[in-house]
Amino acid sequence: xxxxxxxxxxxxxxxxxxxxxxxxxxxxxxxxxxxxxxxxxxxxxxxxxxxxxxxxxxxxxxxxxxxxxxxxxxxxxxxxxxxxxxxxxxxxxxxxxxxxxxxxxxxxxxxxxxxxxxxxxxxxxxxxxxxxxxxxxxxxxxxxxxxxxxxxxxxxxxxxxxxxxxxxxxxxxxxxxxxxxxxxxxxxxxxxxxxxxxxxxxxxxxxxxxxxxxxxxxxxxxxxxxxxxxxxxxxxxxxxxxxxxxxxxxxxxxxxxxxxxxxxxxxxxxxxxxxxxxxxxxxxxxxxxxxxxxxxxxxxxxxxxxxxxxxxxxxxxxx
Length: 319
Description:
Blueprint: E1 3-9, H1 16-29, E2 34-40, H2 47-57, E3 61-66, H3 72-82, E4 87-90, H4 102-110, E5 116-120, H5 128-145, E6 157-160, H6 161-166, H7 177-183, E7 189-193, H8 209-227, H9 232-262, H10 274-302, E8 311-315
Parallel strand pairs: 1-2, 1-4, 2-3, 5-7
Antiparallel strand pairs: 3-8, 4-6, 5-6
Helix pairs in contact: 5-8, 9-10
């Protein structure tokens, strides 16, 4: 199969028929073999009913339904698990991403040897309250991740199949898939200017809080990707340094006291000196951090695979 199109959605019953018809037209025009995996993220409207009807008409349309709303990352993760195409393309369900971009995205992955292509909505039809925070968010992400893309949060992306099978997306990490892919060893990451269309149906499902959550997720993924499998490298190092600082501080206090006693020089009690308590606290915290790193190593080596998303129904997909 040439292409898998993964579409996470939440309450998008109005746009699904037009979207799938548009995708089908593009695929047939370019003679692609394909599947469309619609992941219903716990919609409250008739989205799943529409998906069932569309699937009955076209067996290339497949569906996954969550029991409740887990978020876009969970939907993408399940879609990636089910995808069988050589190239996997993601897009939003609200028609703001154009399926006409699919042939060029496919060519960049299949023939230009990219691992991942991220869309860049250079010209956006969004209010300034959304565009300005987005630019700041993308700037911070570029600086912290080392992946130099203009639009990390663009839903229109294309992946080599091996990429989506090698990465795991959870929480709200969908914004950082290029970063996750780079950490997994897929470094051929490119960018393509894509058309941004105004929303035709419904309303946006994301508020300004996504930028705060996005920054916290960036800190989290930076830590997890670097130290998730080797927590001792962080906690052990810091713990050892703190213990040694505390130890030498306590040794200094003790040596000074011994020197004064040997030379019969009046000296304060050790317990009257602030440096004693600072040293003691540093040694205790250092020991705790070292043990935290050790326990983290044990947990990371024995942690099971993440499987938190409970699928209620499937269409045309093997279990």
